């Protein structure tokens, strides 16, 4: 009798387990590109060998995790969009607030969380704010926690306002409580449409009434009204009261 033919899904499950990432939630073409590049880079010829390498070599594992989760970021990424947020949204959002909570969902090595903290300082509310920086990669959060981003040391007073949170956004959980501002930029674009929709639903539910969620300029939340969101620009949505 012939041995059972291994299902491609079993390989993918093996890789997902070895990487500790919800691979099925990421777009297939994105995962495939990352895997093909990894096979070439690590000089192995098949998925089984790659899984073994990921299991046995933390450097290979981190490299592939960062590639699939996409670690590209930067302080004040997309200044045009942030200038708009700063002038069109932040004044009314921060006016008269007693306590302001912001969530950078998919914060990479903290750059986006610190960007938000700096904007809150400009608006004079950092002292009564909490910024949560969450990411699926603990290695990225550890970088953020070090307080040095892009070679710049973040002042202690600002670092103290940011809490780090290890979280897979596709798992449907939040850091708890409600947020006046949520940034989730350049994350949903790598997810399958159902996974992105589920993440949008989770984020929308974590917004305080009147709170704002910002995605990247090229991203959109599908059917925002069904989540209680009103578009206020192409990439920003306000939760209706
Ligand atoms: C392209 S970076 C964007 C970082 C930042 N938001 C920005 O726009 O510069 C994507 C980030 O999302 C994180 N990420 C990817 N999948 C995730 C998931 N399922 N749950 C939480 N974070 C995730 C990655 O680790 C990475 O830090």
Structural notes for this entry:
This protein is of the alpha/beta class. It has two domains: 62 residues, no CATH class; 161 residues, 3-Layer(aba) Sandwich (Rossmann fold), CATH 3.40.50.150. It is 43% helix and 18% strand. The strands form two sheets. The chain has a seven-stranded mixed beta sheet with strand order 5-2-1-6-7-9-8, with helices on both faces. The N terminus is likely disordered. The structure holds S-adenosylmethionine. The site of S-adenosylmethionine has 21 residues, from loops.
List keywords for this structure.
9 helices, single chain, alpha/beta, disordered N terminus, 2 domains, Rossmann fold, two-stranded antiparallel ribbon, seven-stranded mixed beta sheet, binds S-adenosylmethionine
Helix content: 40-55%
- Which compounds are bound in this model? S-adenosylmethionine
* CATH architectural category of the largest domain: 3-Layer(aba) Sandwich
Give Rg in angstroms.
19 Å
Spatial strand arrangement across the major sheet: 5-2-1-6-7-9-8
Question: Looking at the structure, what is the overall shape?
Answer: globular
Distance between the first and last residues' Cα? 65 Å
In short:
With 241 residues, the chain is α/β, with parallel strands linked by helices. The protein folds into 2 domains: 8-69, no CATH class; 79-239, Vaccinia Virus protein VP39 (Rossmann fold, 3-Layer(aba) Sandwich). The protein is built from 9 helices and 9 strands.
């Amino acid at each position: 009798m012939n041995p059972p033919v291994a299902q491609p899904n079993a390989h993918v499950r093996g890789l997902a387990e070895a990487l500790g990432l919800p691979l099925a939630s990421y777009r297939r073409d994105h995962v495939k590109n990352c895997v093909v590049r990894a096979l070439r880079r690590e000089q192995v010829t098949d998925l089984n060998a790659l899984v073994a390498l990921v299991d046995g070599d933390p450097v290979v594992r981190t490299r592939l995790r960062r590639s699939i989760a996409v670690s590209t970021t930067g302080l004040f990424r997309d200044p045009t969009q942030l200038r708009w947020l700063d002038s069109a949204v932040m004044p009314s959002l921060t006016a008269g607030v007693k306590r302001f909570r912001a969530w950078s969902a998919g914060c990479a090595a903290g750059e986006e969380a610190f960007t938000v903290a700096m904007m809150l300082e400009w608006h004079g509310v950092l002292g009564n704010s909490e910024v949560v920086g969450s990411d699926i990669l603990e290695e990225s959060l550890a970088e953020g926690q070090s307080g040095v981003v892009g070679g710049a040391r973040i002042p202690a007073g600002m670092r103290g306002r940011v809490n780090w949170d290890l979280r897979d956004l596709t798992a449907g959980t939040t850091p708890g409580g409600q947020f006046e501002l949520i940034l989730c930029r350049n994350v949903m674009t790598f997810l399958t449409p159902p996974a992105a929709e589920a993440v949008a639903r989770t984020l929308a539910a974590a917004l305080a009434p009147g709170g704002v969620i910002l995605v990247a300029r090229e991203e959109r939340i599908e059917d925002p009204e069904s989540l209680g969101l009103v578009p206020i620009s192409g990439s920003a949505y306000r939760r209706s009261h």
